[in-house]
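Mods, move this if it's the wrong board.
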Amino acid sequence: MTIDSSLKDAGHKMEAAVSHLKEDLAGIRTGRASASVLNRVTVEYYGTPVPLNQLASITVPEPRLLAVTPFDKSALGSIEKAIQSHPAPQAKLGQIREMFARMAAAGGAK
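Not the wrong board. Structure tokens:
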């Protein structure tokens, strides 16, 4: 292995690491709703795990609210089960809505 090939290989690995870090940081909850929070959610759909973003539209209608609208309304129950680890998803009118809590001020309230 030559120095040039080693440098090229290291460059590719570093780019992949940065890309992975960006994906992880996009999912951090900051008190403002972000559709990327649900990027890693998979839904059991007809016996097969499917990424949520392939089964539903994920929108942010308000700063602290996510709305998940399934393309197939029969998948609503499966989608709701898949995101149960998130705070209080509410299923109504063929849509799942999830509220995000406000972030506490740094250092606490005075």
